[in-house]
Amino acid sequence: MKEIRVRFAPSPTGYLHVGGLRTALYNFLFARKNNGKFILRIEDTDRNRFVEGAVENLINSLKWCGLNYDEGPDVGGNFGPYMQSQRIELYKKYAEELINKGHAYYCFCKPERLQALREEQEKQKLPQVKYDKHCLNLSKEEIQRNLNDNKPFVIRLNVIPNQKIIFNDIIRGTVEFDSNNIDDQILIKSDGYPTYHMANVVDDHFMEISHVIRGEEWLSSTPKHILLYEFFNWEKPKFAHLPLLLNPDRSKLSKRQGDVAVEDYRAKGYLQQALVNFVALLGWNAGDDQEFYYMNELIEKFSLERVNKAGAVFDLQKLNWLNAEHLRKLDDKILLSMLKDFILTTPYSNLNYSDDKLLKIIESMKERVTFIHEFVNNCKYFYEPPKEYEQKSVEKNWKEDTHIHLIKFKVEIERIENPTKEDFEITFNKIVGELNIGKGKLIHPLRLAVTGQSTGPGIFDILAILGKDEVVKRIEKAIQDLNQSK
RNA sequence: GGCCCUAUCGUCUAAUGGUUAGGACAUCGCCCUUUCACGGCGGUAAUAUGGGUUCGAAUCCCGUUAGGGUCACCA
């Protein structure tokens, strides 16, 4: 059997769109699953849209997601170059071949004529605006004269009318188009660069791409590509058009309604494992109930046949859930290094906490966070004394005699050298026993005093992590602040 | 508007002619826990619509409706 070769072929717009990520991922999974090759090709044939650093950025995002390619602009390969801007001569050569065969022709029409034509056709309420094949009738001599005069030209595909163009899509089945609805597409622009259609077909052929897996927005231009393959007499790849990713209002996923760039999600603290896992499930499932996947499991189970046809809404809540799931499965040592990296970006960067202390924070918070940054932002009391006290909890838990209970607890704690979690708990039980009060009467004020909050890990974990001196200080401060304000 | 694609809980989806239409996220309730979370148990919630075909339709066919894509010297 022929080797499976697939490609991700983005145009460098400046960032990797999550829809692009999903396309890249399915290509990658399909290649890995079938022991094929995954290729990155950059479609940079629009000189007007050149963005500085866009390719580097794209590659960064791809690699961050673990989508390593076998061939590409920065890794090389036997089918390069992998930047279309470096393959211009190839496209020209094959466009000329098409002209010689009568399947394409020079067009010297000025933009003004095209504009007028378009307006005229719209005025006539024609179902579709199409080029009128005006330049197809130019004589050989005329064409040669125009070329000699250096008149600007484009090369157009010569579509034959009244033909059915039928192809099979792996995801959608048989799709049929009428050639009457297909315009004489420009293949080579007046600046000598190819359009998408030309470059794409030529490259897919010479890069020996076996399966074209791309977004549904390409479905309606596929007949043009089919025509090209047929005119060249080249073997066609198999096609698979993926359903689109949608906004919550079911329009095509767009910047206006949230983040679309992979780097945005990275910056917000999403794990690459979670993003990949989530995006994989938008439009595909293995047919079982598994939803939590690592990359290797996705590779094992992926198949194009199980890709859905309908568009999928990008639902942040489910992504958040998956992020929390993946975070919890991460080894504490890895979480530690991620947390340290994050702390560097906060005002607490000079605290120099020991790994041991941070590990304890991680352990106590792990079940309570969705993002790494929450190991800091949801429990700032581990890093600094509370600046304020949650009002609702103060009202509910800070009573007339609360400070008396807390002082008794504090005094008792002060006597112990290096109290452990158990010491705190034993002392606590002793005090509530002596005072003959319910545990809640002390536990909630204590939490409020040392954290300023009403939620968080077990109180004795917090006390142990904070340590005796800090606990004592915070109790004193809380009594001062809260009794005063009452 | 022409052409093309699509249609199961709010969302992601399972069920490829016979199921009380299943799971997950979200949501609600209970349990666990004197906090919050995690976890466990349970609830609300879907086959867009009208016709066929069939003993039997979410599933096959046709129409309607709705949504999306595409109609550039952008990809």
UniProtKB/TrEMBL annotation:
GO biological process: glutamyl-tRNA aminoacylation
Molecular-function GO terms, alphabetical: ATP binding; glutamate-tRNA ligase activity; tRNA binding; zinc ion binding
Catalyzed reaction equations: tRNA(Glu) + L-glutamate + ATP = L-glutamyl-tRNA(Glu) + AMP + diphosphate
CDD domains the record matches: GluRS_core
EC number: 6.1.1.17
Keyword Membrane found: no
Highest taxon of source: Bacteria
Limits of the Glutamyl/glutaminyl-tRNA synthetase class Ib catalytic domain: 3-321
Subunit structure: Monomer.
Family: Belongs to the class-I aminoacyl-tRNA synthetase family. Glutamate--tRNA ligase type 1 subfamily.
Name of this protein: Glutamate--tRNA ligase
Protein source organism: Stygiobacter electus
